[in-house]
Amino acid sequence: ADPHVDRPVDRGGRVVLVGDTPSDLKAAKHIGAVAVGVVGRSFTRAQLEAAGADVVVERLVDLLEGPLAGL
User: Fold this and answer.
1) What backbone phi and psi angles, to 5 degrees, belong to 38?
2) 16 — phi, psi (to 5°)?
3) Model pTM?
4) What sign for the dihedral angle of Cα 19, 25, 30, 31?
């Protein structure tokens, strides 16, 4: 077993996980990362928010112009 799997991310850095499913966002929260949801064909904004997304965008490119600008 990988000893790093169940350890939270060191918060000294900024880790952002971008995904388009509730499972992606739950995984991000599990490791202590910022969870960014991208609305796709399968899941709605409301479903991604309910899964714990810190930020939800309609298009991936929106991240560069909005919440993650300057990172």
Assistant:
1) -115, 120
2) -125, 125
3) 0.75
4) positive
